[in-house]
Design brief:
Layout (H helix, E strand, L loop, with lengths): L13 H14 L4 H7 L16 H16 L4 E2 L1 H9 L5 H15 L4 E2 L19 H21 L4 H8 L3 H10 L3
Parallel strand pairs: 1-2
């Protein structure tokens, strides 16, 4: 029998709300048919640009995840959070998560400052969707920076491949591609 306060499901904290729903199914105490009925409920929320108070906790959460996954400690300066709040976030939370990850992976220091942010935060005309070629080039640049950083911090290529969670021949492909 399930004893749970339904008010926790409609909590204002999106992480708490999602955790409770997922914990129900993993504990095995929620009937499977009820589990699927819960996922038929649609929660409508305002776009992230209208919920600027959510940006700082989301950035903190995503920063913690990226730092833990990449075994480094980095953070955003307060001025960056102001830029994040001013941005219109057409991609909502997914775009915010991607941007946080990109900024942290490309950072040269432990604190990301305004001057390290993408130009998209300073030139509103550039914040519109860009071509797939530009996206591919940007993703390649991020991959290259990350691989170079991991190679510098690894004693062997095998260790670097393990840290990147790719096969050694995959790492060799990138080394050859970018002449590292």
């Amino acid at each position: 029998m399930l004893h749970y306060n339904f008010l926790d499901l409609i909590s204002s904290d999106p992480f708490k709300r999602a955790a409770h729903v997922f914990n129900f199914s993993s504990m095995g105490t929620l009937r499977e048919d009820l589990y699927y009925r819960l996922f038929n409920i649609t929660l409508n929320t305002d776009p992230l640009r209208n919920r600027t108070e959510d940006i700082e906790p989301l950035v903190a959460k995503f920063t913690d995840e990226v730092c833990e996954n990449n075994r480094f400690k980095r953070s955003f300066h307060r001025e960056c959070l102001d830029k994040f709040r001013d941005y219109h976030w057409p991609g909502n939370v997914r775009e915010l998560r991607s941007m946080v990850e990109r900024q942290l992976l490309c950072a040269d220091s432990s604190v990301v400052r305004n001057e390290n942010l993408d130009p998209i935060f300073f030139n509103p005309a550039k914040s519109k969707p860009i071509t797939l070629e530009e996206i591919d080039a940007h993703v390649d640049a991020i991959k290259k920076l990350h691989i170079v950083e991991v190679l510098k911090g690894s004693s062997t290529r095998a260790e670097a491949a393990r840290r990147l969670n790719i096969a050694q021949n995959g790492l060799q492909y990138f080394i050859k591609k970018w002449k590292l």
